[in-house]
Amino acid sequence: MKLMFASDIHGSLPATERVLSRFVESGAQWLIILGDVLNHGPRNALPEGYAPAQVAEKLNQYADKIIAVRGNCDSEVDQMLLHFPITAPWQQVLLENTRLFLTHGHLFGPENLPPLATGDVLVYGHTHIPVAALHGDIVHFNPGSISIPKGGHPPSYGLLDENLLSVIALNDQQVIAQVSINP
């Protein structure tokens, strides 16, 4: 199974268009959105091409292929524009030998882990900083932000292909970080 991950879109239309193009090119079965879809939030500057209603329209074209969780900037008003659910604080994807625990990162995250078993993967956004690393017996994976990257990183997304989780730069597709999970 191939999965793509995007986080912290924050209403950026150009970033949404780029990530949807990468999604189609990747052949991934599902696009997992890790929150902060439409709203830029009061702590962030407006991202390039801020157009939340148009972002909703673009994403709605892929509604049947999106799994999403709620970020700290998402609300019921945002849900009114989207044709896929975004209000769950977390989701799980069960692979043959691995569980992916999907969350935005403001409720559960590296500093406040949910109950996870050896080999599970914590998949989160929120920090806008890419991570693909083994911490003890749990994999931590953050695809970064496609619209407002932080820490000097480029805009990025994530891809799970077979048992390899990669953070990939949105514009030039350079691999930023990788980690293997249980096959």
TrEMBL record:
- PROSITE patterns per the record? UPF0025 (PS01269)
Pfam families this protein is in? Metallophos_2
Q: Does the keyword tRNA processing apply?
A: no
State the needed cofactors, names only. a divalent metal cation
Catalytic EC class: hydrolase
InterPro entries for this protein = Calcineurin-like_PHP_lpxH, Metallo-depent_PP-like, MPP_YfcE, PdiEstase_YfcE_CS, Phosphodiesterase_MJ0936/Vps29
- The Enzyme Commission number assigned here is 3.1.4.-
Q: Where is the Calcineurin-like phosphoesterase domain?
A: 1-161
The membrane spanning regions, by residue number, are none
Q: Can the keyword Hydrolase be found in this entry's annotation?
A: yes
Q: What are the GO MF terms of this UniProt record?
A: hydrolase activity; metal ion binding
Alphabetical keyword list? Hydrolase, Metal-binding
- Describe the family membership recorded for this protein in Swiss-Prot or TrEMBL: Belongs to the metallophosphoesterase superfamily. YfcE family.
* Name of the protein: Phosphoesterase
Origin species? Lelliottia wanjuensis
UniProt lists the gene as: yfcE
